[in-house]
What we know:
Elements: E1 5-11, E2 15-22, E3 27-35, E4 43-48, E5 54-57, H1 63-76, E6 86-93, E7 104-105, H2 108-116, H3 125-138, E8 144-148, H4 158-161, H5 167-172, H6 182-195, E9 204-210, E10 214-220, E11 223-227, H7 249-256, H8 262-271, H9 274-279, H10 284-292, H11 296-320, E12 325-329, H12 330-335, H13 337-344, H14 356-360, E13 367-368, E14 377-380, H15 385-401
Parallel strand pairs: 1-6, 6-8, 9-12, 12-14
Antiparallel strand pairs: 1-2, 2-3, 3-4, 4-5, 7-8, 9-10, 10-11, 13-14
Helix pairs in contact: 1-3, 6-15, 10-11, 11-13
Amino acid sequence: MSSSRILVLNSGSSSVKYQLLDMRDSSRLAVGLVERIGEETSRLKHTPAGAEAREWTGPIADHEAALKAVSAELAKDGLGLDSPELAAIGHRVVHGGKHFTEPTVVDDTVLAEIERLIPVAPLHNPANLTGIRTAQALRPDLPQVAVFDTAFHTTMPESAARYAIDVQTADEHRIRRYGFHGTSHAYVSRATARLLGRGPEDVNVIVLHLGNGASASAVRGGKCVDTSMGLTPLEGLVMGTRSGDMDPAVIFHLMRVGGMSADEIDTLLNKKSGLIGLCGDNDMREIRRRIDEGDEQAQLAFDIYIHRLKKYIGAYYAVLGRVDAIAFTAGVGENAAPVREAAVAGLEELGLAVDSELNAVRGDAPRLISPEHARVAVAVVPTDEELEIATQTYALVKGSQNLT
């Protein structure tokens, strides 16, 4: 019997998202979510392919209990974790630092390095580690593969990755631009090339991953040469609750004049800034509704969001020199036509424009929204980070084990 299935796990501090895929045709056999782990009101939602979703609510004490519950739900569909068709489990790991440049089979050394990176990813890497260790305990015989958000960005030149601070201090504390959303940027840049009928090595793309978290990347010939997020996911674009780029002296000012602690400033910039800080909403649909009703605060928040986005488009145009396509992806990028239109408005001299009718069309498939014969293609490319993780995981274990 062939081993063609990959279980993808995305473990958060109190949640586990999962998908089971058959890599023979990249089909999804089941998807699900366990949330509020550690609470009395934990919730599991499981949806097998072609069937109605099943929901369960009750106490789930920890990640081990969560994965056992997931395994039980999969078993009801004949897809249990004990299946010989399961080739590996692929784990999303947010921070891999400079060390991990590609998907990696987990061993004790890999676990130790992920743990060592906790100081630069304190919200994510501990949960990712918990998910890996829990899966190892349930299936110690199965390859566990870590796929890193930062890996795609390790191709950046030092001129893009280094900050202009004392080199010894930077190296001692591992301070540099790492970038995030790498699996999305990798998937979308390749999918954009396919949409253009070309190979990734022949295409220069600006990828705009616009969700509650947002990042941009400049991809030359399939390799990232710059990205907007930095040491942490705080830098770059205006996001749902994060400030993005800001004069670092603001932090000193808030400490000295505002009397705020480091933790208070951390909370302010990560959870109370961005769109929610500017207008009280971080849902672009609600912001657009308020704009339509004449809300000036919502309009200002939108304008600031677009201004930052345009600055990055222009900057990455300059970095790449030649741009073949701009790809919008993630929740806002895929669904908010006004954002896409506003982001390229006034950039006609750069060859950028959207066709209003094409831009208004909604769909799940990659599509062009630029006018016919446009110098630069503008595309909407739905991201698929789980498929990217599964693809990388399967390629790694298939290569090492000669799976059929």
